[in-house]
Structure formats: structure tokens, C-alpha cells
Design a protein that fits this description.
The protein has about 650 residues and is mainly β. The longest helix has 7 residues. It starts with 8 loop residues before the first strand and ends in a 16-residue tail after the last strand.
Length: about 650
């Protein structure tokens, strides 16, 4: 969990509104097209007429599926709706289930605590069953246009999010199987407040009467190791008056009120009880974060704001196990803000270097009066220098695994996420742990929250959030070269070759970010063959990533990447967008250790993956580990 992997490319595919409307209640209905320009927010329809929601021709792990049928009171899934998982190039789904059985606990391995439905949650369905794939996964839903007892119409009322980690070829050894029990993860999630790691380490316990103005030292340790767990039990009226402080190697890693530190409030109807933090059945607040330290650890309970003496029961677990030196450092990043922010979005967290988001807890409300539309804005994560977010959600309550408006006020608590207090007209408190579904970044990250229902309907948002992260100040990847299709210098230097019949022309359009950032550049198009270019690295790189910029008005455009004649990676199909046409994609590469001469060929996967018959290229960038970015031809891209 604490190790940072530069070979991961984190993506979220969702039903977000392509033209920046932020929400769309109707799906495809009877309204005129101009009133609903993007009703079908999936990648494409396959040859069976099924909606493809996720498609990766490479390797990876699909770690989270979230869905809802809308509101204000979400319906069940029509019996005709089925979830189909295709692995590799198979035309036959290896998994073909009624959509309801993916979430209702009736079909192994899609059972609790890895799944829950709209009744166990708050109006939505979620599955955290990890779905690994060696080379290729397509997720499709059939029966969306079939009427049934749930919706009573043929409108495809389905909203979704799918989180995955894309990996280089060879990183995954076996495809998902329905026979997988995933026992270790089930045990982890079922800990119910006890140590989910089952380390059987001694707990240092104490009972202390803490007076106003005093501080209590809970743990001190020198050398290298891990803060493995903290347990506290005291009068809940004092939670807001005490602060938990964790110092790691001379730096303040955590400095939060108890309520924010454990994501609980004395007024919560459904207090948090995740595997890693919360309130257990016996009334103990707990952390089970693995918090590494390399030189020194200090854990303190600060009573500076305490108004009366309080009896504190405590338990602390310190683990001297090795590995801390190779891990990211834990940081809790609190932020309180109100307003519309820049481009009608507020920045929840920002980090340089490399890292991963571990959890997000927050309280949210409209800044002015009662307005439930504060829940409408998408949660988005911009990583690694992409202009548009590669991790783009479909609503605030969706991020926290709730249905629309949390089913109009229903609190819930699951091992992965919960809503302790919900008032759609007032203030709501939510939390979510991110494990396999975490955004992992190699070179900077911004966590953004849109404010309001749409650019035309802004709603000033108040957000009181804590982003929990493992991070390192060191960038895991940096850009080391770029090739612009419109640059004669670049084409000559890198021996860029297009297939016969290719045509290049200028394009001015925008990226799908909140600011609609405009770009004017040349884009090349062809309908057959492949393209290639050459690079020579002065030093081998421990990790490589190829980024491309394309014109997303053409659907499909999936591709296989060969390096020196061997398959080294894959590009996914684009999400078609004829309005904001620029898109960037990353492909993690697998090349033999020590490789320095790279002949790269990008081979479109014609007649597959929603291919529309046209492949486009505007720009390529190669990203490598720092220190490996000097090319023998003297070219070096300025680092951000």
C-alpha cells in the first residue's frame, strides 16, 4: 500500500457529461437532441448492440464498479440488463450475469463485503471485486433499451464509474475467474475495527486523566519502523477539542482534530467503520494506517483547546519491521474553503512529486442557503501533467459510492465508504478509503471538486476535507522527449514515418477540462497501416510511459505499441467527443532491461474496440525515470 509504482496508470471511466454539463438526468429520452447532446455516455456499442463501458486491450486490474439508475429514488436493474466481461480477444464473455446479481450478494465472488446494492448502501450499487486481466478486458452491459418492471421505459437510465490500474504487458499473470474467493481481502475488510493486517503485535495501553492545556505523549520511537495502529476511547464531547499530532522524521505528517482524524462526529447517524479508521462497536476510535518513519516517530494528543479534564484510554502499536525507507510518507492534507473556485471548481488537494491518494473525508454544503445542487459537481483528479483529468467522476455523492442525493438523505456505512450524516438541503459528511482503486501519480496531482450543477448553474460550495496520501517529493517519471506531428524538425530528428495516404491538417479545439483549455496544432489522420519513430536513450530507464495526443472526434483509435519488434504496451480506445476534441492517453511500456535503442511502432487495432476507421496523431511524449532523460541526439525536454 505504501509503495509507489511508476508503472501504474490510474484511470476512471464514467458517465460524466461530455459537454461539461456535469449532470444529465434523462439518458436518451423523448427530448430533442439539442436538449440532450450526449445521452449515451459509454465508449461505443459493440456488434451485439451492447454498451461498452470499459475497454483496455492491455494488462491491468479493474478494481471498482459503481452504478446507479438515478433518482430521486433509484430503481432496481431491469432483468434484461446483464453485465458481460470479455477477456483477451474472445468474442464470448467469460462472465455473463444479470446486472442485479453483481451487487446483491447472491453470486460468488460478487458477495459482501466486496459488494453492496442500493438498499445496503445509499441508493447506489458498488463492487470492489478485483478483476485482473492479462491482455484485454471489455466490460459491456446489454438490455439497456429493454423495458421492464424497474424503470417502465426504454430510456437507458444507467450512470457508472469504473476505476482501474493499467499496467505494462506481463505485469498480470492470470485473468479473473469466478472461482476466485479473494479471501485475504475479505478478511481485511471484515476486521470491524480490529487490526486488519492481523500482525499480532503488542499494544501499548494506558489510561490518563488529561487536564485542559496538557498534552499526552502516546508514542515515541527512534530508528526505522512503522506506526501500525492507534486506538483512543474518551467522551465524544471532547473529540472536537483535542488534536492528534503525528511527527515523522522531524516533519508534521498529521495535525488534525480528533473528529477529522478519525472521520467521525458525535452527531453521526452512521459513524465511519472502515478497515483503516473509524469508530468500533465498543466505542474505540482507531487508525490502522501503516505510517512509515525512517529516523523518529512522535505521536501526541494535544489538549490545548480542552475545556475540562477528560479520561483518555489509549492503545498504540509500533512495528519495527523493515521497508519504511522504500515507502512513501503519509500526509494528511486538510483544507477548508468556500466559493466557486477557479473555473467553478475548488482544489481539494495538490501534491508534487509522486504518490497515491489513500482516503478522502469531507463535510460539504452549499455556501449560500439550501441548495442540493452542491452535490452535483464531479470529483476529478488531474495527474502527471495532463491538461484534462484522467480520473473523471460523475458527481460528489457518486465518488462516495452513494446514489443521487444519497437517496435523498439516507446515511450508510460500508467497509469502503460511507455517509455519516446527510442533509441534501444543508450539510453532509462522507468518507471513502481508496486501496486498489486509488489514483496513483508519478509527477504531480491535483484533486478537484466542481462547484454546482453546470457552468450555467454555479453553486458556491463549502468543503471541509482531509486528503490522506502516501507521497514522495521525488518525481517517479519526467517527460524526456516530445514529437509534434506538425514539426518538420521533430519528424526528421525522430525519423517519424506515416503510412501512405496519411494527411495532416491544423486543428483548433479544446481539452475536456473545466477551463476548456484550447490547443491549436497539426493532427495527422490515416485509415490503414501504422506509424513509427526512433529514439536513442543515453541511459536505460527503470520505467517508461508513452503519451499521445489525439483528435477524439474519431471513435475507437485503440493501438498496440511495439518496441524493437515486440509488444510493449497498448493505447485504449478514446472516449468520442466531437465538441472538445483533444485527448491525451498514457500507455505504460515493458521493454527489456538495459534497452537504449527504441524503434517504436504504433499499430492501430483496426476493426476492433469501437474502431471508426480513422486513426489520428498529433503529439507523442516519452516519460522516463529521472536521471535517464539525456538523449544521444542532444534533445532534452524542459522538465516541469
Amino acid at each position: 500500500m505504501a509503495r509507489l509504482d511508476a508503472n501504474m496508470v490510474s484511470v476512471e471511466r464514467s458517465s460524466f457529461c461530455s459537454d461539461n454539463c456535469r449532470y444529465d438526468r434523462s439518458g436518451r429520452g423523448s427530448e430533442p437532441p439539442a436538449a440532450n447532446p450526449h445521452p449515451d455516455r459509454w465508449l461505443y456499442l459493440d456488434g451485439n448492440g451492447d454498451a461498452v463501458l470499459y475497454d483496455d486491450p492491455g494488462a491491468g486490474v479493474l478494481s471498482r464498479i459503481w452504478m446507479t439508475t438515478g433518482g430521486p429514488q433509484p430503481a432496481c436493474f431491469n432483468p434484461a440488463m446483464r453485465l458481460k466481461l470479455y477477456f483477451g480477444q474472445s468474442a464470448t464473455p467469460q462472465v455473463d450475469l444479470p446486472l442485479s446479481q453483481v451487487f446483491d450478494g447472491s453470486t460468488a465472488p460478487f458477495t459482501p463485503p466486496l459488494t453492496f446494492d442500493k438498499n445496503q448502501g445509499s441508493g447506489a450499487y458498488a463492487s470492489y471485486v478485483p478483476i485482473p486481466y492479462v491482455q484485454g478486458l471489455r466490460v459491456a452491459v446489454s438490455g439497456l433499451d429493454q423495458p421492464g418492471p424497474c424503470s417502465g421505459s426504454t430510456a437507458p437510465l444507467l450512470w457508472y464509474q469504473m476505476d482501474a490500474q493499467r499496467l505494462p504487458p506481463g505485469a498480470v499473470s492470470t485473468d479473473f475467474s469466478m472461482a476466485d474467493n479473494i479471501a485475504a481481502l475479505r478478511d481485511f475488510l471484515g476486521a470491524d475495527g480490529t487490526d486488519p493486517w492481523q500482525r499480532m503485535l503488542p499494544v501499548t495501553r494506558a489510561t490518563t486523566l488529561l487536564a485542559p492545556g496538557q498534552s499526552l505523549n502516546l508514542a515515541s520511537a527512534s530508528g526505522s519502523g512503522w506506526l501500525a495502529g492507534v486506538q483512543l476511547k474518551l467522551d465524544s464531547a471532547a473529540w472536537s477539542e483535542l488534536r492528534v499530532k503525528v511527527g515523522v522524521d522531524g516533519n508534521a505528517a498529521i495535525d488534525l482534530s480528533m473528529s477529522r482524524a478519525f472521520a467521525v462526529d458525535s452527531q453521526d447517524q452512521s459513524p465511519a467503520r472502515s478497515a483503516l479508521f473509524g469508530l468500533d462497536p465498543a466505542g474505540w476510535l482507531y487508525w490502522w494506517w501503516p505510517i512509515p518513519y525512517r529516523q523518529h516517530l512522535e505521536v501526541t494528543l494535544d489538549g490545548s483547546a480542552l475545556t475540562r479534564a477528560v479520561n483518555v484510554q489509549s492503545g498504540v502499536v509500533v512495528d519495527p519491521a523493515p521497508g519504511a525507507a522504500a515507502s512513501g510518507r503519509v500526509h494528511a492534507l486538510p483544507r477548508q474553503q468556500c466559493g466557486n473556485g477557479d473555473d467553478q471548481q475548488v482544489q481539494v488537494a495538490e501534491a508534487r512529486g509522486s504518490g497515491r491518494l489513500l482516503a478522502l473525508t469531507g463535510g460539504y454544503a452549499a455556501a449560500e442557503g439550501s441548495d442540493p445542487r452542491y452535490l452535483e459537481g464531479d470529483v476529478r483528479v488531474a495527474m502527471d501533467g495532463h491538461v484534462a483529468p484522467q480520473w473523471h467522476g460523475s458527481g460528489l455523492e457518486d465518488f462516495y459510492n452513494g446514489g443521487f442525493y444519497f437517496d435523498w438523505g439516507r446515511t450508510y456505512n460500508q467497509p469502503w465508504s460511507g455517509a455519516g450524516h446527510v442533509d441534501v438541503q444543508g450539510h453532509s459528511r462522507m468518507w471513502r478509503v481508496l486501496l486498489g482503486d486509488a489514483p496513483v501519480y508519478a509527477n504531480g496531482m491535483r484533486l478537484l471538486q466542481e462547484a454546482g450543477a453546470s457552468p450555467a448553474e454555479p453553486v458556491a460550495l463549502c468543503a471541509d476535507t482531509v486528503a490522506w496520501m502516501y507521497r514522495s517529493p521525488r518525481r517517479a517519471l519526467v517527460p524526456v522527449m516530445s514529437l509534434d506531428a506538425g514539426s518538420a524538425r521533430d519528424r526528421a530528428r525522430d525519423q517519424y514515418q506515416l503510412p501512405p495516404g496519411a494527411a495532416c491538417a491544423p486543428l483548433t479545439s479544446a481539452f475536456a477540462d473545466a477551463a476548456d483549455t484550447e490547443r491549436s496544432a497539426s493532427v495527422c489522420r490515416f485509415d490503414g497501416g501504422s506509424e513509427q519513430f526512433y529514439l536513442h536513450l543515453a541511459n536505460p530507464s527503470r520505467a517508461l510511459r508513452l503519451r499521445r495526443t489525439v483528435d477524439a472526434a474519431a471513435p475507437g483509435q485503440a493501438a498496440r505499441i511495439e518496441v524493437n519488434g515486440a509488444t510493449a504496451g497498448f493505447f485504449e480506445p478514446v472516449r468520442p467527443d466531437s465538441v472538445r476534441r483533444w485527448q491525451t492517453q498514457d500507455a505504460p511500456l515493458a521493454v527489456p532491461a538495459g534497452s537504449t535503442d527504441l524503434r517504436i511502432e504504433v499499430i492501430p487495432l483496426w476493426n476492433a474496440h469501437g474502431d471508426g476507421g480513422i486513426f489520428t496523431s498529433s503529439r507523442y511524449e516519452l516519460w522516463a525515470t529521472p536521471g535517464d532523460h539525456i538523449f544521444s541526439n542532444g534533445f532534452e525536454l524542459a522538465l516541469p
